[in-house]
Design brief:
homodimer, alpha/beta, Molybdenum Cofactor Biosythetic Enzyme, Chain A, Alpha-Beta Plaits, 2 domains, 6-stranded mixed sheet, 9 helices, 12 strands, 36% helix
Chain lengths: 242, 242
């Protein structure tokens, strides 16, 4: 079984249409490439109660949870406190983070800026040594800020610890109507029930009108399913295979 | 109170990183412009049990629910059956939809293609007359397909029925550190508790480093809050106001 993950985008700015979320497409692409099965992406407002409840549910349901957003010095940055609330623990200031902040802001550091040294009690730093400001994690929850450039920079440094056996993906490009091949797709799934089989209609493409995707962690399983499928599909409908 | 909405993106292809969701950014932008308050966006796999459970929860929690994806003739198109399951009702074939499909596909129409004439019992067609293939709705749930071009075409024809009093948005561009203005932001919220106030750090911009957003459905409320805020902020930090 692949490790599962849930992604929580904490962002009133996304829900109010002011910002398009770039973090979930990035994380889902990275995690899939690492062999992790992302099962849910949810965007919620900067509301501590809602965040706490979703973090609790996600942490129970998925092996890994990634949050982005709500980390910073202002009133709408409530993620750390909400994650602490999710696990019924308090918030503590981490000396290493405090040190980084004091060096960055100097003498004039404000109480608000020092809030960024806080983490849920029982939390840990991930990427220490590689990152000047490490990622805060609690149990299976990894807390990222909202700014896409920083999410990328931080995730790149810690990504290897999430690597699993990869998914194998094969794609079949067809020129036909989806409704003509449903029996073939059902036959494939009857024979290969563990296959992840997708069928996607494509509009306004002169070459192909459907893309089928076949995925599994077993290369043999995918190849057998692909051969079984190709033997059934009407040969003129097959444009190409990748 | 603004009408609330939840958006459910049904798409294993999004969760597996093969497709970037374009539907939720589109819908959230449209709904916000219509004065609707989107409170949650969730992406889930093409799994009838999961869809049914989320549709039920969303339909209870939000005034309006929009789903995209999982509508079509193939094995992974389970949204209609799942929405029916969410409300404990069956699936029926709608004569108008059947008629449209039979005219489109002609004599050779398959049983799979006819599945696209199905809707949950007690459902209704929205946009009849304006759309050759209307939107299926059940109670407060509006069911859209996954293809972004079709989502846009359909939503444009029915959007006016969702129009509410608009949100008023003012933005203040600042050159400062967020941590220096947190007291000012708290003071604004103490005085204007119903204001939607966002604070967003901006990296690598030579002109401004923070954008504040002030929103409400009352133009006067936003203007008063804006004036109160501007009187408190250090004048040299203010780059411009929109």
């Amino acid at each position: 079984m692949a490790k599962t993950a849930g992604i929580l985008i904490i962002g009133s700015e996304v829900l109010s249409g002011k910002v398009v979320d770039q973090n979930s497409p990035y994380l889902v692409g990275e995690l899939r490439a690492l062999g992790v099965d992302v099962q849910r992406i949810t965007t919620i407002p900067d509301d501590a109660e809602i965040i706490a409840q979703d973090v609790r549910t996600f942490a129970e349901q998925y092996d890994l949870v990634f949050t982005t957003g709500g980390v910073g010095p202002t009133h709408d940055d409530v993620t750390i406190a909400a994650v602490a609330q999710a696990f019924g623990c308090g918030v503590v200031r981490h000396p290493l983070l405090e040190d980084v902040l004091r060096r960055h802001y100097g003498e004039g550091i404000t109480a608000a800026q020092l809030r960024m040294a806080e983490m849920p009690e029982g939390g840990r730093l991930v990427g220490e040594g590689d990152l000047s400001f490490p990622v805060v994690a609690v149990r299976n929850v990894y807390i990222f800020p909202g700014i896409p450039e920083i999410v990328r920079r931080k995730f790149e440094r810690i990504r290897e610890q999430f690597r699993e056996q990869p998914f194998i993906l094969r794609r079949v490009f067809l020129c036909c109507d989806e409704g003509q091949i449903t029996d073939d797709l059902h036959a494939v799934l009857d024979r290969f029930p563990d296959l992840q089989l997708g069928s996607y209609p494509i509009l306004n493409n002169p070459e192909h009108s459907v893309i089928l995707t076949l995925e599994s962690k077993s290369p043999e399983y995918v190849e057998h399913a692909l051969r079984f499928l190709l033997d059934r599909l009407p040969p003129p409908s097959i444009v190409r295979i990748e």
